[in-house]
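Figure 2 data, in text form.
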Amino acid sequence: MDKGGLLFLLLIMAFAMLAAYHALFPVPAAMVFTRFLGLAGFMVLCVALMLGPLSAISPATFGPLLMHRRAVGIAAFALVLAHFLVSFSLELGGNVGYVLAQAPLQLGAVAFAILTVLALISNDWAFRNVPSWKGIQRLAYIAFVLSFGHFLLKASGMFVAVAGGKVFANAAELAMVALGMATILLQLVGFYIMGKRKSAKAAHAATEAQQGKTL
C-alpha cells in the first residue's frame, strides 16, 4: 500500500472510532450525529494542515503525501458542510437570528464561509486563473483557528456528561483537543524549519555572489 492509501485508511479508521464512541455516548441520537460530523470535519481539517509541516520536517517520509492534501481538504469541507446543514436544520430549526446571537455559532459560521470559498477554488482552473490563489488558500489557517474556537466553546460543557448517575468523559472530544494543539505545534515547528531553510539559502546565495565578485 502506498502512503496515500495508508493516509486514507488511517482517516477511515479514525472515522470508525469516532462513530463508535459517539454511538455509545449518552446524548440524544440527533446530537450524536451532528457532533460526529463536526468532530470528523475538524479532524480531517487538522490532517490537511499537518501535512505541510510534516513534509518540512521529513520530506522523504511525508513529502509524497502533499499530493493528497487537496483531496483531504475537500473531504474536510464535505464533512463541515454536512455538519452545518444538519445543525442548522435539525438543532437550530433554520433560525439565523440564533446563529448570529451566539459567539460559538458565529465563529463556526465564519469558518464555514471561509472553507466554502477555499473548496470552490480548490481546482486546477482556479490555480491558474485566480489572482493570489496561494494567499487565499492561507485563509485555511484562520478557518482552523475559528473552527477550534467554535469547537472549544461548544464542547466546554460536554467533555463530561452525567447520565443515570454515571459520569462519562467524552474521549472523542478530548482527543480532538489534543489533535488541535498538535496541529498548532506542528505549524510553529514547520514555520521555524522553513524560516531556517530560507535563511540558509539566502546566506548561500550571498556567499556565492560575493565569491563571484572576488573572482
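Caption note: The chain has a mean pLDDT of 81.
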